[in-house]
Design a protein that fits this description.
- Keywords: Mitochondrion, Signal.
- Residues 1-21 form the signal peptide.
- With 193 residues, this protein is α+β, with helices and mostly antiparallel strands.
- Helices cover 12% and strands 13% of the residues.
- The strands form four sheets. It has a three-stranded antiparallel beta sheet with strand order 1-9-2, with no helix packed on it. Strands 3-4 form a two-stranded antiparallel ribbon.
- Mean pLDDT is 79; it is low at 5-20 and 139-143.
Length: 193
Amino acid sequence: MRRRVLLVAVAVVVGWASGQGSQPYIGQIVQVAFNFAPTGWAQCNGQLLPIGDNEALFNLIGTTYGGDGQDTFALPDLRGRIALHQGQGPGLSSRTIGQSGGVETVTLTSQQVPAHTHAFVVSTKQGDLKAPASSAVLGASTFSAAYAPAGSATGQQIAGTLAGGGGQPHTNMPPYLATYYIISLYGVYPSQT
């Protein structure tokens, strides 16, 4: 415990003395356009780190993202994820820091599709083309309910269609651009005041 307090104090003094603007905060996450973590930074890929080598960072994030809290703690895993601010916005669900969620694909059920109909109205004019034919769309000519008798001024409405879809999932991802998330292991210890 004494060692942690000393490390925190040293980190604060070093950060203050260096002008604070030239060093990142410990635990600061940034996106970069290159594909590696520079010295003093680590990938945000959920990796476990030893607490003894990273006490200042452990004091800030603890086991929020995993680890046993005795020997190890985990960094955030942002692979394939979009980072969200914790809390609750107007009309939105509450999110706690470290919470993950979402799915890449969704399979809709009939209960999730808005109520609608697929009406099929036959022309009131007398037909002059038998189905099936190369330009006909009715289907087999054995479906007599779709034809009005010759000389009749009315047609018949068919109530609906057969169920469609195959129950297969579809992707549920907005347009994206993959970049690299890294987290600072060292730097200025952030103050809450």
